[in-house]
Design goal:
The chain has 392 residues and is α/β, with parallel strands linked by helices. It folds into 2 domains: 261 residues, Aspartate Aminotransferase, domain 2 (3-Layer(aba) Sandwich); 102 residues, Aspartate Aminotransferase, domain 1, CATH 3.90.1150. Strands 2-10-9-8-5-3-4 form a 7-stranded mixed β-sheet, with helices on both faces. The protein has a 3-stranded antiparallel β-sheet with strand order 11-12-14, with helices on one face. Helix 4 links the parallel strand 3 and strand 4. The protein is globular and about 70 Å long. The two termini are 39 Å apart. The structure holds 4'-deoxy-4'-aminopyridoxal-5'-phosphate. The site of 4'-deoxy-4'-aminopyridoxal-5'-phosphate has 11 residues, from helix 3.
């Protein structure tokens, strides 16, 4: 039992109480088998059923077509940065017999880190654009118009990578870039760690989707992938001699996508309790009306908080361009930073917690993931207005 939390932390984030209550019971005695879900073999009938159910429910929620496969892997977003780079380069070599560039659209610190990892792995990583170069303040907070950078797309790409929602900087792609999506020779690879299941997406446009669980869908430690099946084939068809000749790093076995898929996400021990929680989140979302309903709520939430902040322009500063404001991570500062401490203190008296901005950018950040209710966000919006009134 607990009071409905109003925790706006960026992740790990709060989950629906109802999901955790069920998970707590299942941790001790799953389906009355006398053992908890985390205490049985990852290859047992019950564990296999959890894997199957999670896949089925995710496919239903996101309308995943037969062209794509779903799998789960240990690790998080950072593990994904490395595994995406080596798997996708291997696929490209498998298909084309030569290296393709790893193109990155850098719009915040997570896409920047993903680029750095591909570069560190000695892959031919290239920044297609860094949004700071197009920003009048030289900061992350905008996304340049496609016409300003599409001509930078030169040559052959193993993939083009973007982070759909930059959790730290509060920048979200409102739409996928058409010049990538409409190019049949480019696989789009996207990090949806902080906005998966927050809105409708068209899976057919993606080569690979990667999402760490600890924001919208569960606990840390597990990552979900949705991948085009042709990419899996291309990885399998890659010739090791050729890969060696081209210096493509070998993917560690636990992160080799075809191996994980062939073994139904249980090549090695999948954290089945963590996956079960993810499935309970999927079921919870399905029961309340799916992504359609969630998107309606998320729209109300983002409107409520941004309207509150926007109505005091002399008091709050919103550094992100309106057109690319994140609907999950609302970033703002106080014009008078000497009030920062007071803001946090008074918020926490109202049990509004987790509002401190990322250590690299300071200020404040309200993460309004799926589990935050409209009422919780309205409480924060009211506080934002009251605080401005009282301290202006
Ligand atoms: N991508 C995004 C969008 C993130 O928000 C984060 C973490 N908050 C990561 C990647 C890295 O995830 P992890 O800490 O699980 O490696």
């Amino acid at each position: 039992e607990r009071e409905e939390p109003t925790h706006f932390g960026a992740g790990p984030a709060q989950l629906p109480t109802h999901v955790l209550q069920q998970a707590a019971l299942d941790l001790i005695n799953y389906k009355d088998i006398g053992l908890g879900i985390g205490e049985i073999s990852h290859r047992s009938k019950d564990a296999t059923q959890v894997i199957e159910d999670s896949k089925t429910h995710l496919k239903e929620l996101l309308n995943i077509p037969d062209t794509h496969e779903v799998f789960f892997m240990q690790g998080g977003g950072t593990t994904g940065f490395s595994s995406l780079a080596t798997n996708l380069e291997t696929a490209y070599v498998g298909k084309n017999g030569k290296l393709g560039k790893c193109g990155y659209l850098v719009t915040g610190s997570w896409s920047q880190k993903a680029y750095e990892e591909a570069h560190r792995l000695r892959l031919p990583a290239e920044i297609i654009f860094d949004s700071r170069k197009y920003d009048s303040n030289g900061k992350f907070g905008s996304i340049p118009n496609e016409s300003e950078w599409s001509s930078n797309l030169n040559g052959d790409y193993a993939y083009v990578y973007l982070c759909e929602n930059e959790t730290v900087h509060g920048v979200e792609w409102p739409n996928l870039p058409e010049c990538i999506v409409s190019n049949p020779n480019i696989e789009l690879v996207a990090d949806l760690s902080s906005n998966i299941l927050s809105r409708h997406i068209d899976i057919s446009k993606y080569g690979v989707i990667m999402a760490g669980a600890q924001k919208n869908i569960g606990l840390a430690g597990l990552t979900l992938y949705i991948i085009k099946k042709t990419i899996l084939n291309d990885i399998q068809n890659a010739n090791q001699t050729k890969l060696d000749e081209l210096n493509v790093p070998v993917t560690p076995i636990a992160f080799d996508y075809p191996t994980v898929v062939k073994n139904n996400s249980a090549y090695n021990t999948i954290p089945i309790f963590t996956l079960h929680i993810m499935d309970l989140v999927f079921q919870h979302l399905k029961a309340k009306g799916g992504i359609k309903q969630q998107e309606v709520e998320n729209e109300l939430k983002q409107k409520s908080i941004y309207d509150a902040l926007d109505s005091y322009p002399n008091f709050y500063n919103l550094p992100v361009d309106k057109s690319v404001r994140s609907k999950m991570n609302v970033v703002f500062t106080l014009k008078d930073s000497s009030l920062d401490g007071k803001f946090l203190e008074e918020a926490s008296k109202l049990k509004l917690t987790g509002l401190k901005g990322h250590r690299s950018v300071g200020g404040f950040r309200a993460s309004i993931y799926n589990a935050l209710t409209v009422e919780s966000v309205n409480k924060l919006s009211k506080f934002v207005k009251d605080f401005a009134e009282a301290n202006s």
